[in-house]
Design brief:
Two copies of one chain form a homodimer. Chain A is an alpha/beta fold. The first copy, chain A, folds into two domains: 162 residues, Rossmann fold (3-Layer(aba) Sandwich), CATH 3.40.50; 119 residues, Orthogonal Bundle (N-(1-d-carboxylethyl)-l-norvaline Dehydrogenase, domain 2), CATH 1.10.1040.10. Chain A is built from 13 helices and nine strands. In chain A, the strands form two sheets. In chain A, strands 3-2-1-4-5-6 form a six-stranded parallel sheet, with helices on both faces. In chain A, helix 8 crosses helix 10 and helix 12 packs across helix 13. Chain A starts with a strand and ends with a helix. The interface between A and B is large, with 72 and 72 residues.
Chain lengths: 293, 293
């Protein structure tokens, strides 16, 4: 088994690093808060490091899972960044969802040091990270992907090589368009049902399984009906991803009217204090629009 | 087995009537064009009739499957309409998708003659009608539904009692909101993928099965990729249904921003000559918006 670094132990990164540990890899960990690592550090072959550069030192693969584009830039190319110590031939694997354009730049910079870079954003949320059933969408050099793939299998069920650097990120953004527009459709369907006096459980049963069915209907529909806004995936994170989508669509002359609309409605959700709620809060926003008081 | 009438032998009605025939019922048929009935008429216990009133005469149940609200009104309450001859205690079952408000009125009129009326719109398209796997969403009197249900089983797999008169239609409209907004999401996701140079088959494989998955992605995604606009369900029919949705949302003070948007984009599809194409033609419309020529 290899020595690998894992940088970023948030709700996604922590369980993902745990799967690498369970698979027998030696871990070099770094995160903003050391406390997050306590449980992992209590097990053998696992070491805390004081910076991304320290984590990357001597690692064959360097995994990163942080919130946004500037965070990844900081971890790789900032002070005491990964680029200062990553060995020639090592592979940096970025699980964060960030701008495809930034991915390409970082890949170029690492490449000048003969360090490989794969973009490998994930889908499946906290549950998928915990259960090791994430979808992982990879872009970058094919031979680097082939080397990394057996290790990625510890964390994901569906691992797809999408093409050159940035295509993993672009594929993740395709996923976020699907997710967010479908969620809006589910919200509108259920608010229409509610305002027209239908029994919502009966309605769900009647439309589920047919041409209107979707993962979002099955998972978020019941939460909308019971006004449970606890997050699977938060409005704030979805908004970050939709900004990446809309930036990339600007850059490619692509018109995305429904994606723009859902971005605006999520802004209304944030304005109403639902930023930390789950994306099903769209239903709450539409309910307010439909209120006659 | 009962004597039943079937009025309207279009792409949906013809195979549905065929299932009733196969189940052993005696059929009294009527449609705008007698030619449609030829095959059914070649089998025993099946009779052509010259008007809706003639078809309904002596039938325990009278099935209707015609395109739009005025057609149903004509069949039931027009010249030589069903109402002239339907026996007290018989049940009129309307499989058409029409305005919920019209449904309630027709139910009231038939009720004054002690004739039951069920709204029973279907989902599942031509394939579902042929294979007898339709979803049937029923509104109306519960005891009438209980009497009709065993007969409906010949045509549908998922048969749901939704509540009082009109709730079957409203539930079908919920389904159409889901279907159409999801189709728009799939169109935007795939045009984004295409314009950003992703391999579309790989992209489908990466996002299918995850949080972005849906019936529409699975069925229409491949058709969009291969530019196959042959209809499962036509843009013109979807537009008719979306008009019913938006009328009902006006009447209930419900704001449906994405549903309104998809209605407008389908109007653009119709303007570009895609009215008789399948709803996946939305992708073609977005592709044109994203064209740099």
């Amino acid at each position: 088994m290899a020595t690998v670094a894992f940088i970023g132990l948030g709700v996604m990164g922590l369980p993902m690093a745990g799967h690498l540990q369970a698979a027998g890899h030696s871990l070099r960990l770094h995160s903003r808060r050391k406390g997050r690592a306590a449980k992992l550090l209590s097990r053998p072959n696992t070491q805390w490091t004081d910076s991304p550069a320290d984590a990357a030192s001597g690692a064959e693969m360097i995994f990163i899972c942080v919130p946004d584009t500037p965070d990844v830039e900081q971890v790789i190319a900032g002070k005491q960044g990964v680029i200062e110590s990553a060995a020639a031939g090592s592979i940096v694997i970025d699980h964060s969802t960030i701008a495809p354009s930034a991915t390409k730049e970082l890949g170029d910079r690492l490449g000048r040091n003969n360090v490989w870079f794969l973009d490998a954003p994930v889908s499946g949320g906290e549950v998928g990270a915990r259960e090791g059933t994430l979808s992982i969408m990879c872009g970058g050099d094919r031979s680097a992907f082939d080397r990394a793939e057996p290790t990625l299998r510890a964390m994901g069920k569906e691992i797809t090589y999408c093409g050159p650097s940035g295509t993993g990120q672009l594929t993740k953004l395709v996923n976020q368009i699907l997710v967010s527009v479908t969620t809006l459709g589910v919200s509108e369907a259920l608010i229409f049902a509610k305002k027209n006096g239908l029994n919502l459980d009966t309605t769900m049963r009647a439309v589920n399984g047919g041409a209107g069915s979707s993962w979002q209907l099955q998972r978020l529909g019941p939460k909308m009906i019971s006004a449970d806004n606890r997050p699977g995936f938060t409005v704030d994170l979805q908004q970050k991803d939709l900004r990446l989508v809309l930036d990339a669509s600007d850059g490619s002359n692509t018109s995305l009217p429904a994606t723009s609309l859902v971005h605006q409605l999520f802004t209304a959700a944030q304005a109403a204090g639902h930023g930390k709620d789950g994306t099903q809060a769209l239903f709450t926003v539409l309910e307010k629009l439909a209120s006659t008081h």
